[in-house]
UniProtKB/TrEMBL annotation:
It catalyses: glutaryl-CoA + oxidized [electron-transfer flavoprotein] + 2 H(+) = (2E)-butenoyl-CoA + reduced [electron-transfer flavoprotein] + CO2. Residues 131-221 form the Acyl-CoA oxidase/dehydrogenase middle domain. Belongs to the acyl-CoA dehydrogenase family. This is glutaryl-CoA dehydrogenase (ETF). Pathway: Amino-acid metabolism; tryptophan metabolism; Amino-acid metabolism; lysine degradation. Residues 233-379 form the Acyl-CoA dehydrogenase/oxidase C-terminal domain. It comes from Sphaerisporangium aureirubrum. Keywords: FAD, Flavoprotein, Oxidoreductase, Transit peptide.
Amino acid sequence: MNPQDFLDVDRDLSDEERAIRDTVRDYSTAELLPHVADWYDAGTIPDPRGLARGLGKLGVFGMHLSGYGCAGTNAVSYGLACRELEAVDSGLRSFVSVQGSLAMTAIHRYGTEEQKSEWLPRMATGEALGCFGLTEPDSGSDPGSMRTRARRDGGDWVLDGTKMWITNGSVADCAVVWAATDEGIRGFLVPTSAPGFSANIIHKKLSLRASITSELVLDGVRLPADALLPGAQGLKAPLSCLSEARYGIVWGVAGAARACLLAAIDYSRARVQFDRPIASFQLTQRKIADMLVDVNQAMLTALHIGRLKDAGQAQHAHISFGKLANVRAAQRVAATSRGIHGANGITLEYPVMRHMLNLETVATYEGTEEVHALTLGRAATGLDAFR
């Protein structure tokens, strides 16, 4: 039986969905997997523009959006792409997720026709890169407390503030920045070439190292009136984009968990101790059985939420359920797989500790475990425990 799809979850995929899965898997295995350990070791992506062009040709940027050069696939197809990318590395799925589910979705959903036409076709091909500026040094789980401000000055807007933990921030051409105004929280398209805008790369990360993470500084950045995303009013706008990105995580971490399970099976069959493969020992088989259950339950959860999303029935609490459950499962699988690998598990010759450390970041960003637990608690009881 196939351990990576023990319950034959993928039998419910359409021919088109299978084709997308296989295309992204083949590309990721051939073009990304051979390099990702070196990128992780170096703590960066050496050629983000080249990576973007390749992924643009693959068609994964904004693939769930329609028009403007986007593929217009269904939610399950996008989820499958996230699964196959994160099976290689969480940083690569984040690269695609920030571009498509955050920056492009914000423009597609809330921008003017001129903004969409200017940015989306180039972002879909990877010619232009975007980032999403919501989180701040003192504002993470409570984005409504942001300190970045935008004030009117004649016909212009002037932005001041700092954004933190911004994927692709230092390589982006356009930043979608959320700021507090006298009219509430609004979104702005900020060209990164604008005077007063700077991006500082965050170094010394121990997780998500095959990714570029930055601090954005806005020091009197002056923007014309048409930089405003007119359809985005209030905190619900950026949170709706985050929900799109979280959906990709639900699928992505299932891919990371699958990679760790397969690595553990291969290693335990080849590793001989006491004159027999360690896979033949009861304790090892129990660990593999637990991992097998976690991986396949995570894939079932992802597929079901994807079908709900395609039917227009997925609520944000469903996405919270998926992120909470699947990230937790993936962390268990990665840690167990690392243990099966013994001392070899801490090296980059094997993917397991890289995935294990990456999942520490994935568990934190776009909603911590505590935030999603409270979201589910509110959905179940009808009572809000956030404040």
